[in-house]
Amino acid sequence: EEVLGQLGLDEFADILDNVPPGLDELLALAETLAVVRGAEPDSDGAASLTGFERVVFDTAPTGHTLRLLAFPEFLDNLLGKVVALKARLLAAIGLLKGVLGGNDPTDKIEAAVARLQRWRDRVASLRELLTDEDVTDFVVVGIPSRLAVAECARLLSALADQGVPVSHLIVNQVVDGASSTAYLDRIRAEQGRELKRLDGSSPLGELSLSRLPFFDLEMRGVFPLQYVASQAFRGTNADAWEDLLADQKDRFVLVGGKGGVGKTTTSASLAVQFATDGHSTLLVSTDPAHSLGDALETDLSSGEVVRVEGVAGASLYACEVKVDDAVAEFKRLVGGVSSDEGGAASAQGLGLSDFADIFDAVPPGVDELIALSKIVALAQRDAYGIHFDRVVIDTAPTGHTLRLLTFPDFLDRFITRLLVLRSRFDGAANMLG
Which of 2, 9, 76, 306 places its Cα 20 to 30 Å from the Cα of 215? Predict the structure, then answer.
């Protein structure tokens, strides 16, 4: 039993139980669908709706939704590779049990794989529904601004790539000729009520509050963003921003909030202000539905760090995080940890090289985090030929950003378990040696 314990089954099962952030959200959606459709299949094998003729899902903002839609493919790839690795493990265990005897230690890993199979089945059912044009329609919602229209177009393209049927577009906040002074008065009154709440008992009231006017034009390009910065970070708001603007130490700033509230404009205008004040600045977008290039009127589609022209003072560079190389980066990391080249484990057929292939498709969001961390690390090492005094991160809308912030813990737990698993494989091989 001691030798069998060296095989690391507990650690392997723990890795399967280490759910990537965002998967719980998708499974909850799939579970809701299962409840709505009912547990009993109809004559053709499909579950039927139980009392509901229409089901409406209010999805997260663009980037988060696209990440959720990427999970079914990840689960399919993961399950196939886990089952293959499980078979290899159990074959080795069977040989050891025949020689050494003892109780079967594989129940935990069997349960973990079975749970993963159930997850995949539920998500596959959801995926099938989302791509059925006879049943499903995705309604794209936007507002009549250049940034929002560009994002809607990117969303439509991505949904088409995923096979999700789309036939409707709703444009909100349209101002027409019937709008009157009374209309503006109602908006002003509603805003006044919410601003009083910020000054009251709300925890938000403890933050330094900067108020910006409503601009009747969309602020795009360096010069309009400089004007936004003069309103946001100077004048009556100057005291609140003095520390960030004047501090000679390097500073790292994240800008976040609900989708459509002006995060990208705020991030870009803050970066422009930093550079204007003499701080070499790097501005990075982590939102999969990028609009930073639109705001700066600079082509950032390459994913490379690009200099933004037209800023007087210090240099301003910007980048929209691309994840094309992140999968290879992650696999190299896992492959390096699991490499058993020339080791005793390999000689016994118990190596971990196959384990690295489990993450051929990394969990959605991990690629984004790795790409972001790589850019920030390069910036900190002055790898771009310039030292950045300020790094500004234009984050995705709230939910996606909160998920992104949980990924470091997920990766830490994953790598820790992988290291323990490798150690146990090596120990088992040495004992058999």
Answer: 306
